[in-house]
Write a structure and sequence with these properties.
heterotrimer, A mainly alpha, B mainly alpha, C alpha/beta, A: mainly alpha, MetI-like fold, 10 helices, globular, B: mainly alpha
């Protein structure tokens, strides 16, 4: 009996997906509105999008931009956050600046950045970079701050220099929290990417979405939503597996999976 | 931290901001960038002040944006706290809600925006719905976790004092979960600020985001900065207010 | 007043194994008795208390209060926990008034009663403080006042002084006895400290380590009121402590025998 239960809980997300799609289907049939195609119609449009070479290039470009910007953001933000966590000086220096820029939607900087850098990849990557940096810095900061002083003292007694302590003690100890920040950043990267493409139409998944909207191809619009949604869920699930493996030694805390615009 | 330490910190924190503004000023004064691309800070802040204080259409835009923000945020709070509590209290609700949240949470809700536009039109409703959808999950999750981690002994103490089972949720679990709920609300509030602005940028006929996009189309650089700074300030102010509320509501709780 | 009839408790641990915490416990507790439940860690003594409190249902057997089976928590059996379990969003006064208000006592009357109790536990002047502003000993006093406020017939105390330093502990032990002397409620007091058990109670129930069984029940024939300074030098007290400590040593070895 409990095996059935275990199986059900494993499949639960899948069941939830199917359930939501079911609700969509019924609602669409009931509302019978041109601009609200049924789930099945949308799903049927998905293969044609994925099969279309141009769309694939667009989506590929989106993902490429996202990965590069994300990686660069990590390389910059994690050390910065760690240093902020261990040095009151550094923290006091950067904190207010970060607090002010926090509520600014990075994707909203798109027009300004476009003004300066044109509509190319760099502009979009810069925006994604900015969007990802903040949560990663914040979580690295928190994680580093929480590292027990006594652990560092033990390291110092063993002869580790300050830099060594940072890399060999603070970094691993703060890793669970850092990875939480990365997960948030990843979701944000995807969202910022889509949003910036919606604002600065030129290429990418968001562009496909709004083109279809303009041209009244409603099935494509919803199909694209499903695709982007699937990308989001897939990336998040994959990262979560990686994260769980990397910090399998840590005690379970809870993190709030976040979804920003 | 003593008063001296605090002042040093504040002064230190002002430095990068002052530095950034100084660099900004320098770039414009030395002509490294044309005025059309990067107007000098003085011009921007003057325009900001003028719009805020004298322009009723600008004030109107702020009101529209704020209205959508609050409407969406309030819906998210009511739904998030309600469902979060229900999921913590009832295993049946939990079993249904949990997988749905796991599926929907990592979804970029902004991808739904076109659908919302199709269904609800280009006015307030689509923006409010998007805001609510995005702000909902952090609030729901933090409520759920806060409620499910309430100390068992607190509940037992209340039960022994005669509290019937059905009242435990509101008399013990909810108050004890308030710190967690407020954390979720803070995140939700920031998200609301961001989302409303972005939604207005993507398509709208009014509001701060719309003003930015309009200025971009007409190459009015100064008028692009002004709404951006405004939303930033609004975010800061709202955040500060929420923090104040938090301090007052949690005056009895030990520091975490 | 309280009857524990062949109670056993099995817990499922995370490894899906069954852990027998209590085994066939039978015990009768008289009205007005101060009974200590003593034993090494893991002997199930807290579990026994929770069963009497109605917070946990026994796997086997039944616990009765005044002849009626115990079905759940209630104001006739008031707990005082080691972790204090005070409501952090209420002041001292708010916490103590909680029980009476729950029992529909009018606000003014509840407040007056509560203030009296707060004074009785020695916290006059602290009514508007929040728990976070109090020391451990003070918090425990509030917890005691909060439970006394709804006049339970039985006090269930779960290692209430375990989280406090030695000095505060002895003070609170004295204060507890002084308060108890007033109306002599029935008290079930769980502890792992032998001298605390002997000092406070009329009867000490010595338990073995898991699976918890009653090894022995020792009647403590020491006169009341009990003064710590006098008792520490009293050979009868010393004899009880030595005797019971030997019992506990024996039970600790029980677990090692094949």
């Amino acid at each position: 009996m409990s095996m059935v239960r275990a199986l059900i809980s494993r499949l639960a997300p899948l069941l939830a997906c199917l359930g939501l799609l079911g609700v969509w289907q019924v609602a669409a049939l009931v509302l019978n509105n041109d601009s609200f195609p049924t789930a099945l119609d949308a799903l049927r449009a998905v293969p044609s999008i994925l099969g279309d070479k141009e769309s694939l290039i667009n989506i590929g470009a989106s993902l490429r931009r996202m990965s590069i910007a994300f990686s660069v953001a990590l390389v910059v933000s994690i050390p910065l956050g760690l240093m902020m966590g261990r040095s009151r000086f550094v923290a006091a220096f950067f904190n207010p600046l970060l607090m002010i820029t926090y509520p600014v939607p990075k994707a909203a900087l798109m027009p300004i950045i476009m003004l300066w850098l044109g509509v190319g990849d760099i502009a979009k990557m810069l925006v994604i970079f900015l969007g990802v940096s903040l949560p990663v810095i914040y979580h690295s900061f928190q994680g580093a701050k929480a590292v027990e002083e006594k652990m560092l003292w033990s390291g110092a007694a063993m002869g580790l220099t300050a830099l060594q302590r940072m890399i060999r003690i603070v970094l691993p100890a703060a890793l669970p929290e850092i990875l939480t920040g990365c997960r948030t950043g990843l979701v944000l990267a995807l969202i910022t990417m889509v949003t910036s493409e919606m604002i600065a139409r030129q290429s990418g998944a968001g562009n496909i979405l709004f083109n279809a909207l303009d041209m009244g191809q409603y099935d494509t619009v919803y199909a694209m939503i499903i695709i982007i949604g699937a990308m989001g869920i897939g990336i998040d699930a994959a990262f979560e597996k990686l994260r769980a493996w990397l910090v399998r030694w840590s005690e379970p805390g809870f993190d709030i999976p976040l979804s920003f615009a | 931290m003593n008063a001296r330490g605090l002042t040093t910190d504040v002064l230190l924190g002002v430095v990068p901001i002052a530095l950034a503004v100084a660099v900004w000023q320098a770039i414009s004064s030395f002509g490294y960038a044309p005025v059309t691309l990067l107007p000098p800070p003085g011009l921007v802040f003057a325009r900001l002040a003028q719009q805020l204080l004298t322009s009723s259409s600008y004030q109107q835009a702020i009101a529209v944006t704020l209205f959508r923000l609050f409407a969406g945020f309030s819906i998210a709070v009511v739904l998030g706290v309600g469902v979060g509590l229900a999921a913590a209290a009832s295993p049946a609700v939990n079993a249904v809600v949990r997988p749905i949240v796991r599926v929907l949470a990592p979804l970029p809700k902004v991808a739904l925006y076109p659908a919302l536009l199709l269904l609800l039109g280009f006015g307030h409703e689509s923006k409010i719905t998007l805001v609510a959808a995005d702000a909902l999950f952090p609030i729901l999750l933090s409520t759920y976790f806060g409620a499910s981690m309430v100390e068992q002994k607190l509940i037992w103490s209340a039960m022994a004092a005669g509290t019937p089972r059905r009242q435990i949720l509101f008399k013990v679990v909810l108050p004890a979960a308030v710190p967690s709920i407020l954390t979720g609300c803070r995140i939700g509030l920031v998200i609301s600020c961001i989302v409303v602005f972005l939604a207005e940028m993507i398509t709208s006929t009014e509001g701060l985001g719309h003003l930015l996009v309009t200025a971009a189309r007409t190459f009015q650089a100064v008028d692009m900065f002004v709404p951006l700074i405004t939303i930033s300030l609004l975010g800061l102010i709202l955040n500060g207010l929420l923090q104040g509320l938090r301090v007052w509501l949690l005056r009895g709780f030990p520091e975490v | 007043m309280i009857e524990i009839d062949r109670v056993s408790q099995i817990f499922q641990t995370s490894g899906r194994q069954n852990h027998l915490a209590l085994s066939q416990i039978s015990l009768t507790i008289d009205d007005g008795a101060f009974v200590a439940i003593l034993g090494p860690s893991g002997c199930g003594k807290s579990t026994l208390l929770y069963i009497v409190g109605g917070f946990v249902n026994p796997t086997e057997g039944i616990a009765r209060m005044k002849g009626k089976p115990i079905a759940g928590p209630g104001p006739d059996r008031g707990p005082v926990f080691q972790e204090f379990a005070l409501f952090p969003w209420k002041t001292v006064l708010g916490n103590v008034m909680y029980g009476p208000r729950q029992l529909r006592v009018k606000s003014a009357e509840a407040e007056a009663q509560s203030r009296q109790l707060i004074e009785m536990v020695g916290l006059k002047g602290f009514e508007d403080f929040y728990p976070k502003e109090l020391s451990g000993g003070m918090k425990q006093r509030v917890a005691l006042a909060r439970t006394l406020a709804y006049h339970p017939a039985v006090l269930l105390m779960d290692e209430p002084f375990g989280a406090l330093d030695a000095h505060t502990r002895t003070r609170l032990q004295n204060d507890l006895l002084n308060i108890w002397e007033r109306d002599r409620k029935t008290v079930l007091f769980v502890t792992h400290s032998v001298d605390e058990a002997v000092f406070l109670s009329d009867k000490v129930v010595v338990m073995t380590r898991a699976p918890g069984r009653i090894k022995e029940i020792v009647d403590i024939n020491l006169p009341r009121p009990r003064r710590r300074a006098d008792l520490l030098l009293d050979p009868r007290y010393q004899k009880y402590v030595v005797e019971i400590e030997r019992m506990i040593d024996d039970t600790s070895e029980d677990g090692l025998r094949p």
